[in-house]
Amino acid sequence: MNGRRIRVRNDNDTAFYFSYLRAAPVNPSSRPLLASTVPLFPIRTSSAATITLPAGFSPATSRYAAFAFQNPNPSAVFRRNAMTL
Description:
Blueprint: E1 5-9, E2 14-18, H1 32-35
Antiparallel strand pairs: 1-2
């Protein structure tokens, strides 16, 4: 049932819910906003990805970015981080 839209209706109201695969936190952030965020992952998998950081991102400023990765498979995967500022 992962990735399905569920619609519930009664006489006066309609509610929608999207089911998703729950993630188990491995290394929670020390930032309160990120620690309380629930990541949602698409059903479609990718073997590679490129992420562009927002303009003005720098470890010296108060701006930050977060990335969440999920492996729904029982086997391990290789993840390589390459960051240039």
